Amino acid sequence: MKRLLAIVVLTVGLSYAQAPKDSKPASSNVPGAEYPRIHSDLRVTFQLTAPGAQKVQLMPGGADNGLGKGPIDMAKDAKGVWTVTTQPAVPGFHYYWFILDGFAANDPGSETFFGWGKQCSGVEVPEQGVDFYDARDVPHGEVRVRVYRARTTGEWRRAYVYTPPDYDRSTQRYPVLYLQHGAGENETTWSKQGRANLILDNLIAERKAVPMIVVMDRGYATKPGAVAVAGAGGTPRLPNAFEELLLNDLIPTIDSTYRTIADRDHRAMAGLSMGGSQTLQITLAHLNLFAWIGSFSAPLRNFDVKTAYNGVFNDPAAFNKQVRLLWIGAGTLEPSMYQGAQTMHQGLDQAGIRHVFFESKGTSHEFQTWRRSLHDFAARLFRQ
Amino acid sequence: MKRLLAIVVLTVGLSYAQAPKDSKPASSNVPGAEYPRIHSDLRVTFQLTAPGAQKVQLMPGGADNGLGKGPIDMAKDAKGVWTVTTQPAVPGFHYYWFILDGFAANDPGSETFFGWGKQCSGVEVPEQGVDFYDARDVPHGEVRVRVYRARTTGEWRRAYVYTPPDYDRSTQRYPVLYLQHGAGENETTWSKQGRANLILDNLIAERKAVPMIVVMDRGYATKPGAVAVAGAGGTPRLPNAFEELLLNDLIPTIDSTYRTIADRDHRAMAGLSMGGSQTLQITLAHLNLFAWIGSFSAPLRNFDVKTAYNGVFNDPAAFNKQVRLLWIGAGTLEPSMYQGAQTMHQGLDQAGIRHVFFESKGTSHEFQTWRRSLHDFAARLFRQ
Lengths: 384, 384
What we know:
Strand content of chain A: 25-35%
Structural class of chain A: alpha+beta
Largest interface: A-B, 48 and 48 residues
Strand order of the largest sheet of chain A: 12-13-15-14-18-19-20-21
Shape of chain A: globular
Number of helices of chain A: 9
Number of strands of chain A: 21
CATH class of the largest domain in chain A: Alpha Beta
Oligomer: homodimer
Order of helices and strands of chain A: HEEEEEEEEEEEEEEHHEEEHEHEHHEHEH
CATH topology of the largest domain in chain A: Rossmann fold
Radius of gyration of chain A: 23 Å
């Protein structure tokens, strides 16, 4: 009997050793999953049971994504449980996966988040004292899945549409922000990884943002019968007809379905990374349609204010009169995007183009940068 | 030069061999993923690149799920690509994963679907001539993510709420169906795997169903400070406070947020598997709140019409007057659930309890059974 008791105590002891008291399951875990766990100093412990594997590594999704430089070796115990604890992580949402004898495997303990062209694992590391993207005790809007037929592509698509808290109770019409994800992501990304709906709920509750509709669609569109053409590095790619889809299908669908104010003064577009490039390309070629523009961490290489975007910046007086907000931002820990944004900022300054330049301190090419970007950008929108 | 050409041709030849002309990528794949592929005879080819793995198997999620009995060995080629083609599959949605040297890994080519307590891979096998759950050229309703505070659990929860196509344009009030998932699933399941919204869109367009609101929440709720008690097989489990949450938080939230008709004659509840058991437990104990009841493939063991549900069936005249619809269904290929439903059906018949008994022919404990169940059940709801 004493022997049995000893074994039980030992088991409990081991269990405590694996799940230290100063840590708790990440909020991004599926219900009941104990790992990954976040420690009070923001170290993160990952764990995976794979007795048959010879080598397992933790792979942060992206360089400098806040979890450390990957791949990171994990250690196996006698039961085939692989564990690693990272250094204190940068706060925010981080994509990750495990490399299991060379195979990129999701963590069964994590929710999945569409990024990198597939459903990935992700871990939410809280930022102390920061709750602008948390569910708080304020009125909440909705994210609505809007199924619609797109003539450009001949397909049924779905847009994710945020409607503000008072939408159903009022007869008011609202301005609209079109908000785009990055490469390899989709229409679910901004609400799931980015928490765009909670950011807007909180801003609106604090009267820091005007109530607005936010439309999140997939930034990829392929026309029927499209033929691949050489893309970056010569790789054949199908041409992306997203601009055509946005202008000819999505905006008309939104304006005919929701109580929008359907003019340029009440229409904004912003996007992160690839979505930022799309935003600049599309809005600066269609200033008759958009008056509010946001680029979050777009790749902005070789920016020349004289020639960029078909010379749109060559008449600063006209541009400043027409464009209500041009917003350029990046994180200080994403060197290429940050330098690109700074170069554009300086070029715009020299040319006398009014704009906002935003830095997210200590964050990389990641959602903490983009949550902060949306928080700053959305608060400036649709002001008189 | 000739040698190089030969190699190129060989590669193309192999590529065709891997992706036969009579097959196409499953609609449940992520964009661009070529596998799994559905053949014209409904065989399914799965493929995974894992050169470092010693053994890879396809694991259908559940016994007799239509893909065959697992685990099914996959064959490795010289490049480390593992492939298997199944026998012709039963149409419908099937959970699956790969077993990679003993580790249950998702397929990076598949979307993920919450089931089995985690995000799983899934494959959609079309049923010839059947489109009642497809996106068709009809008016579409919305699935809305409703964030709400639940006092029962002290947590922020989200319910998925289907509103019918004309909801925003009318001032009409609507009846409500509370629709529950099975064990290990969640609030996303009925719209993602089950396509409840498309089934309702199509029924409403054909005037086969009354426009209604459908509420899909997570059928698990844990009260703060809850202590585990012995569950099935003695395993300690936290008590599930879903009934309390539904009655005290969810229904009041829905009735105060949406234009519902908030009485028993316009309130239905149904669920699949565990959700069917919850439906019978909750509705038959609260007939003052629900007049329409659906059990889809619930585990109904040892049903005795005299003692079941606290003797609710002992006064058939009163029951038949009070309950507008009692609907019991199962698939013919899920022996335990089918026998349970038949036993209940016979007991109800003998007792003179009016009800509908529904068989889904040739389908198992799977979503094709439950899509058909919802299609039949929803069409009967809220009729005078």
